[in-house]
């Protein structure tokens, strides 16, 4: 049984297609980098796995079952710009919202919910940060709290939407190593959405690259090369490796990294 399987899946909004006839599968416990240009459909794919966007055609399976909303086997970390309810909330109260310990806006967690929240915070080494307001934390510290929230309920699949956004290279490395270590220890498959392959190279088993409505999956070498990316971008792409880093270029413009902009 795969962690995630897409069989000839088409996704879109209204009549507008985002992905067309896409098939792939992700084994349990695999660490997969989900890449693609702005608007390629990364978030839409995560939303489909969460059961929030239904396929126009084809079949999606998540740990052997069709997607359902509120699936407890999935931990989801939305993009930070969409994630925070209000800045004054403390880390522990934020994590408790995922444990079900907030009702009508009040923290009325049961002992079991509190225990689950502190356990998740400890998994990511964030228990010391948890009583501080999220607004006071650095970007890297806040990402730890968001990852802790995604770990509530002992998921078997983690969907992380751009956890590296607005982090410097050193903090990116810390977050990737943390997710890698926790996922390996707990046997969790990870779909790690990023706009750049380089920071992920130390952790990924596979890359799932989206573009032009299509997807390619495989090792870094199998996917991040001129022929495959030219197909996904619909334009001639050159892939260069310099000092262990990969540069994806169309004409003289670097496509990954600098070209990928978010309104953070
Ligand atoms: N709720 C929606 N209704 C209509 N169109 C949408 C909706 N959400 C996303 N889209 C469109 O679907 C396409 C894919 O968007 P999506 O957010 O999945 O891309 P992405 O790869 O995650 O992009 P980014 O890297 O910018 O976050 C885009 O063209 C976007 O405008």
UniProtKB/TrEMBL annotation:
InterPro entries: AAA+_ATPase, ABC_transporter-like_ATP-bd, ABC_transporter-like_CS, Metal_Ion_Import_ABC, P-loop_NTPase. The keyword DNA damage does not apply. Residues 4-237 form the ABC transporter domain. Keywords: ATP-binding, Ion transport, Nucleotide-binding, Transport, Zinc, Zinc transport. PANTHER family: METAL TRANSPORT SYSTEM ATP-BINDING PROTEIN TM_0124-RELATED (PTHR42734). Belongs to the ABC transporter superfamily. This is ABC transporter ATP-binding protein.
